[in-house]
Amino acid sequence: MIKVESLTKIFRRPRTFSGPMGALRTLVTRQYDERIAVDDVSFEIPEGEVVGYLGPNGAGKSTTVKMLTGILTPTSGLVEVAGRVPWRDRKANARSVGVVFGQRSQLWWDLPLIESLRLVGDLYDVPADRFTTSLRRMRDLLGLDDFLDTPVRQLSLGQRMRGDLAAAMLYDPVAAHAGHRRSARVPG
Ligand SMILES: Nc1ncnc2c1ncn2[C@@H]1O[C@H](COP(=O)(O)OP(=O)(O)O)[C@@H](O)[C@H]1O
Ligand SMILES: [Mg+2]
Predict the structure, then answer these.
(1) Domains, the chain, ordered by start
(2) Residue 61 has pLDDT above 80, yes or no
(3) pTM for this entry
(4) Which atom of ligand 1 is nearest to the CA of 60?
């Protein structure tokens, strides 16, 4: 369950001045430009729901997802992901979510894809048997077999995205979340 209430993010950037004394002026005036990236957004996503979040470039989609994952702290509003406040409990949250941003890869550029996936498995303490099952599933689901041994830098964009999706789902974030829920449940 994901709950978002009146979520707002305002970026403040020092106002920059151009011209010969521009840099100095930027330093001494300390004026800020404010940009409202996410403006009073509220929604709820129940467990098991598959949703899309659409909007034009610059609408604030990525900024919203960054607040859901704990990468950014909101200016105001509330977020709860599987019972956690992401930026307060960032490490625990990271184990139960997977995220892929198009322009950034979490794969190791110089390593064959399979080695990157093994490293992700190690980083997330995935037990060997679960890693094997999970890798099998990702290979079938995403058709990775043709390029498992190819260094990530040589993959096409589409292949790299499939590799990144595998890396984001490999440690079974949904199961990690289910485990968290079970342990959080009050007996009786
Ligand atoms: N780190 C940042 N500092 C300042 N402004 C930012 C930052 N990140 C995003 N923005 C601005 O916030 C707005 C929303 O950006 P973003 O969430 O990336 O949009 P989307 O993903 O919907 O295309 C844009 O105007 C963008 O320029
Ligand atoms: Mg974006």
Answers:
(1) 1-12+34-97 (3.40.50.300), 105-188 (no CATH)
(2) yes
(3) 0.80
(4) 17
